[in-house]
Amino acid sequence: xxxxxxxxxxxxxxxxxxxxxxxxxxxxxxxxxxxxxxxxxxxxxxxxxxxxxxxxxxxxxxxxxxxxxxxxxxxxxxxxxxxxxxxxxxxxxxxxxxxxxxxxxxxxxxxxxxxxxxxxxxxxxxxxxxxxxxxxxxxxxxxxxxxxxxxxxxxxxxxxxxxxxxxxxxxxxxxxxxxxxxxxxxxxxxxxxxxxxxxxxxxxxxxxxxxxxxxxxxxxxxxxxxxxxxxxxxxxxxxxxxxxxxxxxxx
Length: 251
Description:
Elements: E1 2-4, H1 9-20, H2 24-33, H3 36-42, H4 49-61, E2 68-79, H5 92-104, H6 110-122, H7 127-134, E3 142-144, H8 153-156, H9 166-179, H10 184-190, E4 192-200, H11 209-220, E5 232-234, E6 245-250
Helix pairs in contact: 1-11, 4-11
C-alpha cells in the first residue's frame, strides 16, 4: 500500500517510484525525455495527454506494484489569519453561517455591517449563490491533488481560490448589486491565502496517477502546467475531520 503525495515535484516523483517500484533516475530520465506536444503533433491520438503518457510510462515500467491507500490533498482558501480549522474542513452547508459572520464582521463602516446583516436575512438574489447553497453537489469540501496548481490558476484555466473563495465572492457581488457598494477589497485584505493539507482514503484510485505523471513530466521539462496535470477532490458534503489535517500554511 502507498500514499500519493504531490506537495512538490520531489514528493510526487518519490510516490511514483514507490508505487511502480522504479528507480528515480530511470523515472526522471523517461519523463524528461518524452515530448508529448510533439507526439500529438505527429499523430492522431484519441486520448487525453495524461492517459497517453501513463500508457507510455507503463509500457516502460509496468503496472503499479503497490496500490494506493491514501492520497494527500490541498484545500485552497482565504480565511482570517490564525484560523485553526478546529472543526475540520466543513462542507458549505455547515460552514455558511460562519462565512456570513466572518464577512459581516470585516467592514469598518457600521452601516455596511448592518446592511450585510440585513442582506443575510433577506437572502441574495443571485443565481450563483442560490445554486451553491441549494444543491449539495456543490458543498464540497474541495481540494487539489497537485499543490503547485494553486499558483498557476490562470495558465491552467482554474479559478484562483487563494484570491477569494467562490461563496465569499458571490456574497460580495450580491451586496454590491444591492447597495451599490463594493466590499471586495476590504474583505480580501482582511483574509489571508491559506492551503490546508490533508490525507484521505476516500479518493485514492489508480486514476490519480495519470495527472501526476503529466505534472512531473511538465515540471521536469520546464513547461507550463495544464489543466490535465492536476485533479480535484470533492468531499460530497462530508467533513474532513481535524485528525486528517496535517498542516495549515498561510501564504
